[in-house]
Amino acid sequence: MSDEELLQKAVECARNFQDFPQVLMAISLHPEWLTIIPENRKWAILHQIIFSGDVNQLEQLLALQKLNKKFRLQTNTRQQETVLDIAALRKDVPDMLKRIQQLIKLDEMLTYARDCQWDKCYNIIKENPSFVNEKPPYRRFYLIHHIAYANAIKEYENMKQIKGCKFDLNLRADRKKINLIAKEGQQFAFATYIEKECPSLLEQDDPDDDSIYQATDHAIKQTEIINTMMEQTNIIQDLDQNLIGGPTKKSRDEVMKYLNNSKTDTEIQEVKTKVASSKVEESKHKEILLDNLTCPLTLAVFTDPVIAADGFTYERSAITKWLEKNDRSPMTNQKLSNKNLNPNHIVKQIISAFQTVL
Fold first, then answer.
1. What are phi and psi of 343, to 5 degrees?
2. Which of 13, 39, 84, 355 is deepest in the core (most CB within 10 A)?
3. What is the distance between the alpha carbons of residues 203 and 223, in angstroms, rounded to a whole number?
4. From what superkingdom does this record's organism come (predicted)?
5. Do residues 55 and 129 both lie within one domain?
6. Number of Cα atoms under 13 Å in the Cβ half of residue 339
């Protein structure tokens, strides 16, 4: 079965509101497929899921995009329908429209902040003060981190004057505190400024709180094994073959044989360029896949993966400890609709599949 056929199958499952695990498996292995529109189709999987009205399924798929830099929520259909247009078609499921509207606004605010368009950012916060401490699942930075990276002390002071706007200075990006993010961006003036405003940033984390982020010895060992296996050239194709019946691409020997049979330097250079480009894409693909198999709290490969209400998958022990003291997502800081945890059987399948491709 070709990649195109696999994508068509996943789109068909989403279109019929059936077999979501099949869709989740496909996007877990190929996050970029969420917004690809196959030949002879009008909608991508993203559009089908939005039309289904299932916000929980949408959250799970969006959580898989956090390292996919090419992902864009506002991806139109072939007929140029927007995600808002599609969400608005379902009057019977208003929660989806509300969620899409919220995500678009958050996206706009964070894009303005990244581009230092502070006036536009200010106007959105004025309408939605809570946005200062929230972000979409696929974004790395909260607003405060963009401010830190831009050394925008004056703008930060202005935003604090907005009614109802109160920055949470404990928010982290990649588990790093705001002052460390500022230093990472060479913005030492902002780091010093924010440390004076919030001295607790200089304090060591409470050992009890820090235990949330500790991976078990078993998880660390498993992470090392899978990292090593990721170095195997065809690991992605092998996983495709084992999990969703994907094709196996040409081997290195086949590629080299083709190169040796080429008649001109131009042909050889063209093939070498394609091989080099393919290696870059494969490396990015492996990075994204590994990220999707890694707990965002422990930073180790899962041993007991569970899905929370925010759509993210966590190591059970880590998220359980988090939920003892928090009712917000550790990845988006948005309030969780519930504290239920459900096993992620897809991630378990993928991790188990690594054992069969050794």
1. -55, 140
2. 13
3. 30
4. Eukaryota
5. no
6. 10
Domain residues for the domain of 213 are 205-358
- pLDDT digit string, tens, across residues 158-200: 999 999 999 999 999 988 999 999 999 999 999 999 999 999 9
Beta strands in the chain (DSSP E): 305-307, 313-315, 342-343
Report yes or no on 97 lying in a domain.
no
Q: Is the Cβ–Cβ distance between 314 and 189 less than 8 Å? A: no
Question: Alpha carbon 46 to chain centroid distance?
Answer: 14
- Tell the residue number behind the tokens 């290195």, with chain if given: 252
249 Rama sector, left if φ>0, alpha if ψ -120 to 50, beta otherwise:
beta
* Phi (first) and psi of residue 136, to 5 degrees: -70, 160
DSSP 237-286: HHHHHHHH-PPPPPPHHHHHHHHHH--SHHHHHHHHHHHHHHHHHHHHHH
Query: What are the beta bridge partners of residue 313?
Result: 307
Question: What local confidence, expressed as pLDDT, does residue 118 receive?
Answer: 97
104, part of any domain? no
Res. 157: pLDDT tops 50: yes
* Residue 297 backbone phi and psi in degrees, to 5: -95, -50
101 within some domain: no
Q: Write out the two tokens for 233.
A: 């050239």
Counting every residue, how long is the chain? 358
Please list the alpha-helical segments (H only) found in 161-264: 178-184, 188-197, 207-210, 217-229, 235-244, 252-261
Residues 210, 184, single domain; the answer is no
Q: Are 168 and 333 in contact (CB under 8 A)?
A: yes
Q: What is the pLDDT of residues 303-348, one digit of tens each?
A: 999 999 999 999 999 999 999 999 999 999 999 999 999 999 999 9
Give dist(CA 260, CA 257) in Å, integer.
5
| Six token digits for residue 220 | 């660390």
